[in-house]
């Protein structure tokens, strides 16, 4: 999946496309919130799909993603870990299900190192069966945007 900035916009907005280039959703950074908040929206239907909100935490990264399933069940997934540079786990604490996904940022090749210098981020996501990969991609981008405030304008990323 590829994530690219959308210009010009009043808010920080990123477009998320699948591997074939088909637009999936937009990620919009909302203003006027105490905690950094992102809205994941389906532009064609003008509908919010998910909200990602950071939390105050000492010595670790923490954020919550809330959405409603197709069956109408509200879900909150929690991202916790060390970011940037290491990894975060995404867990569904309400249902007692352990890690639904893990997102890592590692530079393994010279090409990836050059990409970092050029403003291109590469992440590795390990996703549990029956978990929507696009949902995990959105959460990864929100986490990166929140932690890289001021340094990410015009940057794009690839999630493998």
From TrEMBL:
A Pfam family per the record: LOR
Entries under InterPro entries matching the protein: LOR, LOR_sf, Tubby-like_C
Signal peptide: none
Gene3D superfamilies (UniProt xref): LURP1-related
SUPFAM superfamilies reported for this sequence: Tubby C-terminal domain-like
Family: Belongs to the LOR family.
Name the UniProt record assigns to this protein: Uncharacterized protein
The species this protein was found in: Parathielavia appendiculata
